[in-house]
Design goal:
This protein is mainly β and 124 residues long. The protein is 0% helix and 48% strand.
């Protein structure tokens, strides 16, 4: 069974850090670009970051550049999103997704598999 499972969300104060993990089972992530998306109620799902399958190219939304870092460990079949200097506007449900594409993409319609999401709340 193909599955993506996110973990690492939680409540953090502004300026704090969290590391999200996206673990795959039932398939290997090696051939997939992996994206992180976030969504708040009433808004569209927003592409936050993506890492390509082969050459390690990355994409970051302008709102997170310099604060978030995406990485992958193919040996562990896991992708990470390190989030630093968190702001209240980063509060959302964060999803990881896998796309069988070359390069990177922030378009959720290009993604084939999705996790169930993990809540990130940034508040004092």
């Amino acid at each position: 069974q193909v599955q993506l499972v996110e973990s690492g969300g939680g409540l953090v104060q502004p300026g704090g850090s969290l590391r999200l993990s996206c673990a795959a089972s039932g398939f290997t992530l090696d051939y997939y670009a992996i994206g992180w998306f976030r969504q708040v109620p009433g808004n569209e799902r927003e592409g936050v970051s993506c890492i390509s399958s082969s050459d390690g190219n990355t994409y970051y939304a302008d709102s997170v550049k310099g604060r978030f870092t995406i990485s992958r460990d193919n040996a562990k079949n896991t992708v990470y999103l390190q989030m630093n200097s968190l702001k209240p506007e980063d509060t959302a449900v964060y999803y990881c997704a896998a796309a069988l594409i070359a390069g990177t993409s922030a378009d959720p319609y290009e993604y084939d598999y999705w996790g169930q999401g993990t809540q990130v709340t940034v508040s004092s």
